[in-house]
Amino acid sequence: MLTLIAEILVALLIVIGSTFALIGSFGLIKLPDLATRLHGPTKATTLGVGAVLIASMIYFTVLEGDFSFHELVITLFLFLTAPLTANFIAKAYLHRHIRHDDLPSTNREEGWATYDPPGEEGPLAPTQNPVTEPPARTPAGGA
Amino acid sequence: MIDLALLYGFIALALALLCTAWRLSFGPTMADRILALDTMVIDTLALIVLYGIHHGRSVLFEAAILIAMVGFISTVAYCRFILRGDVIE
């Protein structure tokens, strides 16, 4: 009985996980630009891989009889690193392809933190996008 | 039942890998290609785990852990290279 329940659970988790991974990767094709494309892999695919890993943990624990933490370690690692990679890719995209003037104001004293020069910390780092000025939008062609 | 689910999972992940390969080939910006590579690593990870279930071998998880770490580090290194022009300052 326990074996049957475990089999059903494992099969269900594998199907759910691989479907989510497929949806996340399909979003990579379907969505229009990088800022939206980041959503697919970072959320759907990570969830899918997590489901597959939990399925494998249940399979090896119940049906094969050897319990291991490896899958939990991988799941934890993926869930910790997915936001980091998304943040880094978004930063790289901002620096390479978006002009600083096109970004909306942060409505705070500081500008966008990713444009601060490296090594300067604290609330009084030089700002290039202050709140007191009107939204800094220049016409196309302006620097 | 698990065999059927595994078959479905293999097919779905192969299609997912094709999607990422498309984005990797035609991605207009460099960030798109990095994102496609990162997704490809995650899909490959799922494929390896499914392969381990298929063969009933838990040895393959060492490979899965290694691929997860190498994928993360290479993504971060590539992004830092674009951001700063240098990987380790």
Describe the structure.
- The complex is a heterodimer of chains A (143) and B (89).
- Chain A has helices spanning 2-30, 34-37, 39-63, 70-97.
- Chain A is mostly helical and 143 residues long.
- In chain A, helix 1 runs antiparallel to helix 3 (39-63) and helix 3 packs antiparallel against helix 4.
- Chain A has one domain (2-111).
- Chain B is an all-alpha fold.
- Chain B has a single domain (2-84), classed as Helix Hairpins (Orthogonal Bundle).
- Chain B is 85% helix and 0% strand.
- Chain B has three helices and no strands.
- Chain B has helices spanning 2-26, 30-55, 60-84.
- The radius of gyration of chain B is 16 Å and the shape is flat.
- The mean pLDDT of chain B is 87.
- The interface between A and B is large, with 54 and 50 residues.
Q: What is the number of helices of chain B?
A: 3
The count of β-strands of chain A is: 0
Q: Which two protein chains have the largest interface (Cβ within 8 Å of the partner's Cβ), and how many residues from each?
A: A-B, 54 and 50 residues
Biggest β-sheet strands, sense, barrel of chain B? none
Q: Provide the helix percentage of chain A.
A: 55-70%
Q: Detail the poorly predicted runs of chain A.
A: 131-135
The tally of domains of chain B stands at: 1
CATH class of chain B: Mainly Alpha
What's this, in brief?
The complex is a heterodimer of chains A (143) and B (89). Chain A is mainly alpha-helical.
